[in-house]
Structure formats: C-alpha cells, structure tokens
Amino acid sequence: MRILRVVACATGLLALFSPMVAHAEVEPGGWTSYSPSFNEQERGCGQINGLSFQLTCSTQSGDQRAERRYATYTSGTRQFEGSFRITSMTGSRISLKQTFNESSSGPFFMLAVESGGRLYRVGGDTIASGATVGTTVRVNTVHQVGSAHRTYINGSLRHSMSSPGGSFYDKFGSYRTDSGRGPVTVQWSGVQFWRK
After folding, report:
1. Domain containing 72 — which CATH number?
2. Which end of the chain is flanked by fewer CB atoms within 10 Å, N or C?
3. E strand or H helix at 4, and its extent?
4. Cα(58)–Cα(69) distance, integer angstroms
5. How many structural domains comprise the chain?
6. 112 - beta bridge partners?
7. pLDDT(11) > 70
8. Main-chain dihedrals φ then ψ at residue 111, nearest 5 degrees
C-alpha cells in the first residue's frame, strides 16, 4: 500500500513539473506549448491597454490598428488559441485575427467581424455568426506551413484553405479593414500557442 502511494505521488509530481507538453483545444496529439515574442502596433486611433484593443475613431481611411504581432515562423505546424469579447462596437468590418504571409508582404488569412456579429474571412465567405457585443468567442487557427490553414470557432472547424510555404506570423487585436471603420473595443483572453 505504501509503495502504491509513493508511485502515485511520484507520478503526480512528474505531471506537475512537465508543463511543456500541452493538450491543445483542437486537433489533439503531439503539441508542445511555447511563448513566441511579440511587439505591439498602435497606429492611427489604435490604443492598447493590456489585452484590450481599441479603435477610438470612425475614420474610413488610413492605417487604424491596435494589434500584437508575434514572431515569424517558417516551418512545422502552429496552433494559436485566444478568446475575444467585443465590449463595444459602433463600427463594422474589423479584423480580429491574422495569419500574415511575410513572404508575399500581405495577409494570408484575416478573420473579421461585421457589426451584426458575422465572422468572415476577408475576401471570402462567412465563417460563423453570433460574435455580438458582450459574447465571448474562442478562436483556434492551425497552420501547417506549405500545406493547410484551418480555423475553429468555439472548437468547431469552420474554415480550411491550402497554404503555401514561406514566412508567417500571427497577429490579433483590432484593425480596420479597407471597407471598415471604428469605433470598436475588443478584449482578448486565454492566448496560447503550440507547435509540432
């Protein structure tokens, strides 16, 4: 009985001190958590306060953004997870999450929201609905460089597209699309990254 207790205690300690192997919310199996470096981008009327990203103006031109830009990656499979809650929005067509293709100097995937709560891929179709003011929405993107990019909303696969090779990075926050305008305030939480 005492041996069983020692083994159980040792197993518990091993689990406690093995934080690098994590179970991601989607597509489980073989993920390792990591914390890429980032910088903050405030342009135009964009303001950042912790994980709150705000556009304070209704300007329909110029570079209006409040975002975190994470470190570049060039290979493997990467998973991003984060939850957002729009706390106020009188504008529309605001980008919330981007997978940016540094090799082509442009966004590869942009998840944006309209004032009625429709989530869509910029330049593409509807991904989900219900992203209304006050509602928390979880976003996961899984990116296999040179193969595929998949987007999950609240744990359900909602979009998939092929991916070229090259250099990429993740961004999130609030960013005025070409057809968009603020004001908007977006609160992010639970941001995590995994790779394999």
Report:
1. 2.60.120.200
2. N
3. helix 2-16
4. 23
5. 1
6. 95, 120
7. no
8. -95, 120
Which helix (DSSP H) or strand (DSSP E) does residue 12 occupy? helix 2-16
Where in the chain does DSSP place strands (E)? Answer: 32-34, 38-43, 46-49, 52-55, 65-70, 77-89, 92-101, 106-113, 119-121, 126-128, 136-144, 148-153, 156-162, 168-181, 184-195
Is the pLDDT at 74 greater than 90? The verdict is yes
- Contact between 116 and 86 under an 8 Å Cβ cutoff? The reply is no
Residue-level pLDDT at 91:
96
Residue 25 is predicted with a pLDDT of 77
- Residue 58 in any domain: the answer is yes
Question: Which of 47, 178, 184 is CA-nearest to residue 115?
Answer: 184
CA dihedral (52, 57, 62, 65) in degrees, to 10, reads 0
Can you say how many angstroms the Cα of residue 21 is from the centroid of all Cα atoms in its chain? 20
Is the residue at 7 inside a domain?
no
User: What does the mean pLDDT of the chain come to?
Assistant: 90
Q: What is the pLDDT of residue 23?
A: 53
Structural domain including 122 reads 35-195
Q: Is residue 159's pLDDT more than 80?
A: yes
Residue that has been written with the tokens 């809650």 in this structure: 85
User: Is 126 part of any domain?
Assistant: yes
